[in-house]
Structure formats: structure tokens, C-alpha cells
Design goal:
Oligomer: single chain
Number of domains: 1
CATH architecture: Beta Barrel
Number of helices: 1
Low-confidence stretches: 1-19
Helix content: under 10%
Radius of gyration: 19 Å
Distance between the termini: 36 Å
CATH class: Mainly Beta
Length: 164
């Protein structure tokens, strides 16, 4: 009897869970010089820094999701860096043509040369959204290279929406 109840409970949960179809996405973007930037030298060894930045980015090749196109995004990022490497954690708020937004968490590593960031790469995942993106799930990868005082980025990944 216990086994039958357990199987029935599992089947109920599995059948009640909305199926999230996975849709592939990709895009390329350019980020301007950070609007806000703070750097703090840790002081325990040379070139050990904490850096916080906020930047605005536009799409060269927009991401298309659920019938609408991404228009741009803002990044808020925290880096811890040493002489030639570092790690980063941040969030991205993407705006779409219809006014909806997606929220993304990013994490990865950064590379530096002569104390200046030359690139970053890592992973991202959706943490939420508004409008048709409520309940969004998905993840992917990113890679950015420094261009002047900004950056050029490429993303790839997948997403799913409840009931679609």
C-alpha cells in the first residue's frame, strides 16, 4: 500500500509540473564604458582588487524569445582580481521590445594583462522575468572581450516558459 501511495504521489507531482520546452538562443552585444565603477585595493598583495561596475549594453544580434526581440540590457557586476586573473559575479536585466524583462545571474572568470581586464567568460541562468517571462527557466554560457573602454560579448543558451 505504501509503495502504491508513493508511486501515485510521484505521478501526481510529475504530471502536475508544467513542461518547459527548451528553445535555443544566441546573440552578440556591445557594452559601453561602465556608467558606474568602483575599485578597492585589498592591500594584502599587489594587484588584488575588488571592482564593482554597472554598464549599459546593446545587441548587435538581438536575442529573440517568445516572439519578441531583446532591445538592450544592464549589467551589475562584482569582480575580484589578481595580477592576471580573477572571478566575477553579477546580474543582468534585459529589456524586450514589448516592455517585458528577464533577470539573469552570471558567474565566471576574468583575464587581465598589465592590470587591465582583457576578457571574461562563464555561465548564466535565468532567475525570473516579467510578463510572458514569469516562470522562465534556462541557462547558457557567455564570452566577452574588452574593446576600448567597453566589451563585446557573445551568449548562447536555452530557455523554457511554463505552458509553452
Amino acid at each position: 500500500m505504501k509503495t502504491t501511495c508513493l508511486y501515485a504521489a510521484i505521478a501526481t507531482v510529475v504530471l502536475a509540473t508544467p513542461v518547459l520546452a527548451q528553445n535555443r538562443i544566441s546573440g552578440t552585444s556591445k557594452c559601453s564604458k561602465p556608467d558606474t565603477a568602483y575599485a578597492l585595493e585589498v592591500g594584502d598583495r599587489p594587484h588584488h582588487l575588488f571592482v564593482m561596475t554597472k554598464a549599459t549594453c546593446t545587441w548587435d544580434k538581438p536575442v529573440e524569445m517568445a516572439g519578441t526581440e531583446s532591445k538592450g540590457y544592464e549589467t551589475s557586476v562584482f569582480n575580484e582580481s589578481w595580477a592576471t586573473r580573477g572571478r566575477m559575479l553579477g546580474y543582468v536585466v534585459s529589456a524586450f521590445a514589448d516592455g517585458d524583462k528577464t533577470f539573469v545571474r552570471v558567474h565566471g572568470r576574468i583575464t587581465l594583462k598589465d592590470g587591465k581586464q582583457t576578457g571574461s567568460e562563464g555561465a548564466w541562468n535565468y532567475t525570473g522575468g516579467t510578463g510572458k517571462f514569469v516562470g522562465i527557466k534556462g541557462k547558457g554560457t557567455f564570452k566577452c572581450s574588452t574593446e576600448g573602454e567597453g566589451a563585446a560579448c557573445t551568449i548562447e543558451g536555452e530557455y523554457g516558459l511554463p505552458g509553452r
